[in-house]
Design a protein that fits this description.
Bound molecules: 2-hydroxyethylsulfonic acid
Number of strands: 11
Number of helices: 8
Structural class: alpha/beta
Organism: Faecalibacter bovis
Helix content: 40-55%
Pfam families: adh_short (PF00106)
Protein name: SDR family NAD(P)-dependent oxidoreductase
Oligomer: single chain
Strand order of the largest sheet: 3-2-1-4-5-6-9
Strand content: 15-25%
Number of domains: 1
Shape: globular
Keywords: Oxidoreductase
CATH superfamily: NAD(P)-binding Rossmann-like Domain
Order of helices and strands: EHEHEHEHEHEEHHEHEEE
Radius of gyration: 17 Å
Family: Belongs to the short-chain dehydrogenases/reductases (SDR) family.
Length: 251
């Protein structure tokens, strides 16, 4: 009999996913998922003294890998209480007409379709839990559109709708759904958005104090730790210097 609840985290090999794994390790067994097995192994080694950890190596875009991984979970791991849909990223920051179609497709494939695949695979297990909870990592970009971000914003607006829709549909099963919408968080996010251009990435976070991944992990832990009758539906988190997706006060 497992005494700890089990949380599955996508995109756990860096940023918000990794910070969330670290903060949840105290109270949860963890299934950490990502594309970079070496990073997952390092995180597993780091957390091994605190909790039991299983790594799953898949790309959320790859539908059959996602379903295979979940369907073939070891028996001992077939009870999942919490799903953190964190995997997601931005590719490029360009006007819609100039943006590369491959970049736009990647954002829809990862942020929207990937989240749907993982959720469809994991929800049958979550429904069995007495404490089912899904946390979807959206973005301020899901609530507001900013220039050069049409498709990224559209992908995160889809996450917002999926959070609301899942909340309706999972009511009969007592599954809580929390939507977390961060503003500027300094992670690998901008480095990926700018395809490895460190200078452009650094510039996004220059002149103000951005959020760090742990700030978002703290909010996730807060939502998960709320009393059983309390459902934190939506959390928007900005750095102190931010007031909208496109408004950051830089010194
Ligand atoms: C990340 C935040 O403002 O760059 O989703 O879209 S933002």
């Amino acid at each position: 009999m497992n005494t700890k609840r089990t949380a599955l985290i996508t995109g756990a090999s860096s940023g918000i996913g990794m910070a969330t794994a670290k903060i949840l390790a105290k109270n949860y067994r963890l299934i950490i998922c990502g594309r970079r097995q070496n990073r997952l192994d390092e995180l597993k080694d780091l957390l091994a003294k605190e909790t039991e950890v299983l790594t799953l190596n898949f790309d959320v875009r790859d539908k059959s890998s996602v379903f295979n991984a979940i369907e073939n979970l070891p028996e001992h791991w077939k009870s999942i209480d919490v799903l953190i849909n964190n995997a997601g990223n931005a590719h490029g920051l360009a006007t819609f007409d100039a943006a590369e179609l491959d970049d736009l497709e990647a954002m829809i494939d990862i942020n929207v379709k990937g989240l749907i695949y993982v959720s469809k695979a994991v929800i049958p297990l979550i429904k069995q839990s007495e404490n089912g909870h899904i946390v979807n990592i959206s973005s301020i970009a899901g609530k507001e559109v900013y220039p050069n971000g049409a498709t990224y914003c559209a992908s995160k607006a889809a996450v917002e709708s999926l959070s609301k829709g899942m909340r309706f549909d999972l009511l009969p099963f007592g599954v809580k759904v929390t939507n977390v919408a961060p503003g500027a968080v300094e992670t690998e996010f901008s480095l990926v958005r700018f395809k490895g251009n460190q200078e452009k990435s650094d510039n996004v976070y220059a002149g103000f104090e951005p959020l760090v991944a742990e700030d978002i992990a703290d909010a996730i832990a807060y939502a998960l730790n709320a009393p059983k009758h309390v459902q934190i539906a939506d959390v928007t988190i900005f750095p102190r210097a931010q007031a909208s997706g496109a408004t950051i006060y830089k010194k």
